[in-house]
Amino acid sequence: METTVLKKIWLSPPHMGNNEEVYVKEAFDTNWIAPLGPNVQRFEQSIEEFVGNDVHAACLSSGTAAIHLGLQLLGVSAGDEVLCQSFTFAASANPIMYLGASPIFIDSEEDTWNISPILLEQAIKDGLAKGKKPKAIVAVHLYGMPYKVDEVHAIAQQYDIPVVEDSAEALGSSYKGFNCGSLGDIGILSFNGNKIITTSGGGAMLCKDRALKEKAVFLATQARDNAPHYQHSHIGHNYRMSNVLAGIGRGQMEVLQDRVDARRSNFEYYIEHLSGIPGITFAMEPKGSYSNRWLTCILTPSFEDRERIRKALENENIESRPLWKPMHAQPVFEDVISYVNGVSEALFEKGLCLPSGSSLMEEDLERVCNIIKKELR
Ligand SMILES: *Cc1c(COP(=O)(O)O)cnc(C)c1O
């Protein structure tokens, strides 16, 4: 008997375009193997052109570094409180801890699965009542779906609290015609290996104020004062992106819209083939929102169904993953104050991220759908 090994289908693998190696080779040929260099500038320019809305981009070593710097630039320091979406990846919240500040986690609303404006305002009012105004808000466009920007930002403005817009998963998404990453006081992007485009590791901080970008770059390059010797008046970081990796980023920007189109078409395929199954639901775009559909997620009828599907896929060499476990339910954040409404816990219980890479073939999608249909029959 012949045994055939089924082709592995990954959740969200890297997908290179045509010119990444050309730009990396340029870095080698010119010996720009240092951090900084022409690829970094060109990558920043192409991000600024794509995102538009007058943003300046500072390329950094990771999205996490971008959140850390962003919060620092907004003045978050030891003892402060920062309101953070609970339903997210831990990297949205960890930098709050790096600064010695305390996160307060805010649960989600059901339409976009992102930060609930109602709970957000509640938390702000409670903070003010105890004489402690939150220093910043971290809101996340999870899985590429824009959060309720108008509502969240109206509250932020009313109480004069700056917003870090975590667009790590949402490059190529937009809200009412404006690209995600350009909407908050500070926006952040990630180019980690699983994101819609990747530099293998990297991130960017976006802001409207050129001086703020320059300050970010200053802090990201060890906060060196302008002197011939090494002199420091501030504590810096080593957070700048390497010129080699920025070469990958330049190539990836050339195919970004293709990657968005491919992921959106994966979503369309899943909708067409799975939405007829009783109990399977998807998060749909509210009017005015455009999601890059970084990952297609389904909600199943129950935890048991979710696990059965996940294991059946795994048995056929297909990677899928439960939705993010909310931060307020993480052991490490056990003692953190949270505003909870049950939404993110239900999503975590019943939700599954399906293979969503931009290089998926129709036959791959068909394999995934057939297994899910079989398990739910
Ligand atoms: C990936 C991710 C980050 C962190 O980005 P890195 O580049 O991996 O440090 C932050 N927030 C969210 C929501 C993410 O998905």
UniProtKB/TrEMBL annotation:
Keyword Transferase (UniProt): yes
Keyword flag Amino-acid biosynthesis: no
Entry-annotated residues carrying N6-(pyridoxal phosphate)lysine: 195
Keywords tagged on the record: Aminotransferase, Pyridoxal phosphate, Transferase
A GO BP entry: polysaccharide biosynthetic process
Single GO molecular function: pyridoxal phosphate binding
Catalytic residues (positions): 195
Entry similarity comment: Belongs to the DegT/DnrJ/EryC1 family.
Stated name of the protein: Pyridoxal phosphate-dependent aminotransferase
Species whose genome carries this gene: Flagellimonas hadalis
